Amino acid sequence: MPAEKRWAIGIDLGGTKTIVARVDGGGKIGRMLRIPTNAAKGAAAVKQGLIEAIRELLKGSGRPPAGIGVGIAGQVDPETGAVKFAPNLGWHHEPFGEDLKKALGLPVGVINDVRAATWGEWLYGAGKGCQDLLCLFVGTGIGGGVVSGGKVLTGCSNTAGELGHITIDLHGPPCHCGNRGCMEALAGGWAIALQAREKVTSDPKAGEAILKKADGRADQITAKIVAAAAKAGDPLALALLDRVALALAAGSASLVNAFNPCRIIFGGGVIEGYPRLIGKVARGLKGRALPPALDSLRVGRSELGADAGVAGSAALVMHL
Amino acid sequence: MPAEKRWAIGIDLGGTKTIVARVDGGGKIGRMLRIPTNAAKGAAAVKQGLIEAIRELLKGSGRPPAGIGVGIAGQVDPETGAVKFAPNLGWHHEPFGEDLKKALGLPVGVINDVRAATWGEWLYGAGKGCQDLLCLFVGTGIGGGVVSGGKVLTGCSNTAGELGHITIDLHGPPCHCGNRGCMEALAGGWAIALQAREKVTSDPKAGEAILKKADGRADQITAKIVAAAAKAGDPLALALLDRVALALAAGSASLVNAFNPCRIIFGGGVIEGYPRLIGKVARGLKGRALPPALDSLRVGRSELGADAGVAGSAALVMHL
């Protein structure tokens, strides 16, 4: 079937919210349902909620979809569609894709959510037409995806692209992963919030503007609040985000030297909250990345935003 | 022609010495000539020396070779065989492969020397049969090569695999590349020598054993001397190499998380001089790399040593 006549259902299965949408062969998103994930009710309830939403989207559709693609934060087995480990959902070795397939009688593809977003940006977004692409999604954590020589890299055990966990400061602060000085531990949303809370607590005067936006409670400070304070010109917030840009530039230089991408695309909540970071990182890359790798590099911003995952997971079953 | 009947000439073109050898389809090295490169005499003299050595190896060979593969420290254009930049030879935009081809009437392939060594280890050495392989050559500098999904990564402008220039300490010492805190700037041979010279100068008593091996001249200390002192149990040399192991472990953790290789292979002069580094790095990787990436990883040592480049550059014209 020609691409323009194909369609699929794309799913972005998050820890609290889930998006289920119709996606056409060009990556255009049609009807979209937002449902609670209900992770606390257990895996059976999560699957049941998904099945109902999918059935709703299948109603009156005429042509059957190419299949169902699901992006999920965790490690998956691409062959069986099983979820090996998904901390947000509390799942270990959950037979996920197979159960959906049995219930719906349609092909089901399961993929890591960040890799799905990379597919989305590559096929339909800011990475279109590019054979060597690197996507860096800076949200609460930092994840990434790599296209090299026209192929999405998967690695030996399907975990390639853990770009947030490259070490940029071997004596740096501890990371959630157990290592220290990871790019995520200096520039991920959780790390930004942590740094802001510490600064505000140790220097309440400098932290006034940030603290005010958090209703006076340091433990309520988020990366979003820091970004808002920076936009309003608060010096502490600006200094914190300059440190974030430095960390992202150092990490990106490593990735540019190692992968030599034609394009590096930044997305995720922290970038969306403070897009000026991209320009700062691009400037920081000069003098850090090797000139021949830098000469062929373009730095850009995600085009699909939060839709990248849904579009990419649907693409998985349409194109692969 | 079946692989076992093919042969090629492999060349490792270094800044001072050059190796020219017959290599069979199984990567076995036959007759080998070692010639001075004569870089100071200019590009024409270097090419003439190579042509004479190649003609010598072609004598009485019966079957013609599949071609001539040349590994060279620098950036090359794989399409034309031109050398874009080779600092050791003082070459800029030198029409190298084409000139050799004209003179000899044989196919000529030109490749970066570290990538050639990666091909060698992959096809004939410690990486045999592996679809996701990472080679790290720790010599005076640090270079690398990556095989992912059964393909050697080349990147957007053929510079992928500059693994020595990943940042592991964003506040670290300056690197020759212009950045600071690169893995090479903490663990490359030149950096080991530099650290040893500084320590020996600032603390001559602790530096006694190392200094003695350098005939009392701090400026004559090399990484090789530090390795020899460490083997003899010198505490300062052991401490310096522990720092090198830490840097290599931090950098390798980044690479394991980013590429998710099945095998990581260490080679190069620093490793050959002190092979115990491999065990130290393997232990350091635990607790640094992500468990799912670590679970599927094997850490090993180069099998071809200095022959990897010659075997790999010959493979380039036999297999590609």
Chain-wise SSE layout:
2 copies of one chain form a homodimer.
Chain A (H helix, E strand, L loop, with lengths): L6 E7 L3 E8 L4 E8 L6 H16 L9 E5 L2 E2 L6 E4 L4 E4 L1 H9 L3 E5 H12 L8 E6 L3 E7 L2 E2 L30 H5 L1 H14 L5 H6 L9 H9 L3 H25 L3 E5 L1 H5 L2 H10 L5 H5 L2 E4 L6 H12 L1
Parallel strand pairs in A: 1-4, 4-8, 9-12, 12-13
Antiparallel strand pairs in A: 1-2, 2-3, 5-6, 6-7, 9-10, 10-11
Count of DSSP strands of chain A: 13
Biggest interface, chains and residues, is:
A-B, 53 and 54 residues
* First and last CA, distance of chain A: 13 Å
Strand neighbour order, sheet with most strands of chain A: 3-2-1-4-8
Order of helices and strands of chain A: EEEHEEEEHEHEEEHHHHHEHHHEH
Q: Report low-confidence residues of chain A grouped into runs of 5 or more.
A: none
Residues in helices of chain A, as a percent range: 40-55%
Arithmetic mean of pLDDT of chain A: 95
Q: So how many helices of chain A? A: 12
